[in-house]
């Protein structure tokens, strides 16, 4: 079993990587999907052979409540239809933890259930919040799951200046699902999953 990383240095590295993604110009992104709730773009990842996805939409709620629904905690399992289990393995301080979670099969189970172990970090950013994470090669893989890997990912949640009861939520996601999957299948699943994430989150915030 690998040792857990030193949390402060990993959090700093994650922060710097997400700030870099957030500064990438519009011309570098290619449109992938658009729904009434969100727009998805992609570009080749700097971390692996797949894509870095950017997804953005306006959500009706304050940043703290939105991020509480996204980061590891009691809310996430209640509304995220893709996530089937979640356990906090280690807590370093209030805003840092290691979690293990599993996801449901997708695309008529062409994509089998996956397991991830992620380091998660939440911090302030401008007038809002950033919650971000990266997978760790840690612990034994559960039977009947493929261990996936999230390269640096994160969600920026910033209140709208002229309407602070609404927030702009921008996500950067690059998930290596692993296993024997055609890239086209992964790309289809990722775009749809990210768009659905917004519609599911909005429903959860209204309850």
UniProtKB/TrEMBL annotation:
GO terms for molecular function: cholesterol binding; cholesterol transfer activity. InterPro entries: StarD4 (IPR042555), START-like_dom_sf (IPR023393), START_lipid-bd_dom (IPR002913). Residues 29-207 form the START domain. Signal peptide: none annotated. It comes from Dryobates pubescens. Transmembrane segments: none annotated. PROSITE patterns: START (PS50848). Pfam families: START (PF01852). One of its GO terms (cellular component) is cytosol. This is StAR-related lipid transfer protein 4. PANTHER family: STAR-RELATED LIPID TRANSFER PROTEIN 4 (PTHR47006:SF1). One of its GO terms (biological process) is cholesterol import.
């Amino acid at each position: 079993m690998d040792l857990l990383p030193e949390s402060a240095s990993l959090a700093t590295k994650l922060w710097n990587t997400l700030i870099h993604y957030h500064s990438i110009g519009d011309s570098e992104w290619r449109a992938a999907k658009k729904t009434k709730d969100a727009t998805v773009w992609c570009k080749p990842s700097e971390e692996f052979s797949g894509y870095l996805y950017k997804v953005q939409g306006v959500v009706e709620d304050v940043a703290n409540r939105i991020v509480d629904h996204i980061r590891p905690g009691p809310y996430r399992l209640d509304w995220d239809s893709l996530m089937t289990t979640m356990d906090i393995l280690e807590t370093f301080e209030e805003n840092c933890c290691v979690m293990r979670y599993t996801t449901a099969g997708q695309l008529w189970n062409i994509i089998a259930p996956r397991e991830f172990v992620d380091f998660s970090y939440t911090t302030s950013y401008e007038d809002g919040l950033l919650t971000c994470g990266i997978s760790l090669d840690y612990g034994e893989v559960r039977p009947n799951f493929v261990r996936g890997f999230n390269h640096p990912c994160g969600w920026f949640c910033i209140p709208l200046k002229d309407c602070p009861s609404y927030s702009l939520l921008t996500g950067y996601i690059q998930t290596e699902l692993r296993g024997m999957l055609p890239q086209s299948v992964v790309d289809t699943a990722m775009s749809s999953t990210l768009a659905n994430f917004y519609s599911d989150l909005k429903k959860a915030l209204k309850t």
